[in-house]
Amino acid sequence: MAQTQIHDYAALTADIVVGIDGTTESFAALRWALRQAEITGQTVNAVYGWSYSWDMGPEPQTEEDEQKLRTRAANQLREWVDSALDNFDLADEQIRLTSFKSSGSTALLDIGKNAQQIVVGRRTMNKFLRFIRGSLSMSLAEEALVPVTVIRTSSDEDLTVQDEIANALTPDDQVYRYERPTSPIPRTSRPIVVGVDGSDYSRNALLFAASLARIHNAPLHVMYCWQYRDLGSIEGYETAVPPMKVAQEFAENKVRAMVERAQLPEDVDVHIDTFHISAGKGLVSASRYARHIVVGSRGLTGLDAHFLGSVSKQVLNSAECNVTIVH
């Protein structure tokens, strides 16, 4: 098995590539990328991968017709980016615009292969449809060689459905509302959370999360969600199940050693959290109280990932904050 490459995410020299298509979600992604570039001095490459559709008028028949469409797409991209730049202080050379005829995922994968990260907005689609149809963010997370950050907008398409479920299963005429647990702390004042498991994938996630925490001056919570089978053999309990206190201490020491090996910057405020819970469930729960969740891409691939799921897919589908999937 090939060894996973360990990346230096503190070197913020490569572009932030962001996909934009005029939707509310893509504007949220663009604004997030611009905000980071304003802090780090990075370049933002706004990418519009477009294809012909009926509302563009007659299908192009000549090269001149194609050029008109390309010019129209480039102008549209410029208009979108200009409208988002109003509240940001970036130099002209920090903005790059790329539009070409291609599907959105193909364009982003091609242009973003050497980026510091690819940023997209999460489409407004309920969890079931995201599972059946897939999504741009999931496609990118599975195929990209660089971190993929998915920005979540404030609207929540699942709450309406959960209200309907609550009312359908309640045998009276009273109207019920689903109350989701959350934090009273503003989202931008909450910590960065990174899920780890000791693998090189999660080490890359840890390094990326530390860089993100440093950029935004946010606390970093290193979170290990464990099951007994994940811990391996514990001295003195080789043939028995260790008490919860012993297992918890073993898990904490495991994460502490991982953090020490990673040699994170001294100015990052690091907290270690270990919980006896499945990783997907634990990280989704953490997302209600976090500013940003970072997780490695380790997990299932292909049909197994589609039908059985993986931790990164669970988090991407269900997290209630921004998510980065790191390879």
Give me the side-by-side strand order of the main sheet.
Answer: 3-2-1-4-5-10-9-6-7-8
Cα gyration radius (Å): 22 Å
Biggest sheet details = 10 strands, mixed
Number of helices: 12
CATH topology of the largest domain: Rossmann fold
Domain count: the total is: 2
Structural class: alpha/beta
* Helical fraction: 40-55%
Number of distinct beta strands = 10
CATH homolog superfamily of the largest domain: HUPs
Low-pLDDT runs:
124-134, 303-308
Q: What is the chain-wise order of helices and strands?
A: EHEHEHEHHEHEHEHHEHEHHE
| Assigned CATH architecture of the largest domain | 3-Layer(aba) Sandwich
The fraction of residues assigned to DSSP E strands is 15-25%
Distance between the termini: 15 Å
Overall geometry comes to globular
At the first level of CATH, the class of the largest domain is: Alpha Beta
Mean pLDDT rating: 85
Question: Which descriptors would you attach to this protein?
Answer:
Universal stress protein UspA; Rossmann-like_a/b/a_fold; alpha/beta; Universal_stress_UspA; 327 residues; 2 domains; 12 helices; Rossmann fold; globular; ten-stranded mixed beta sheet
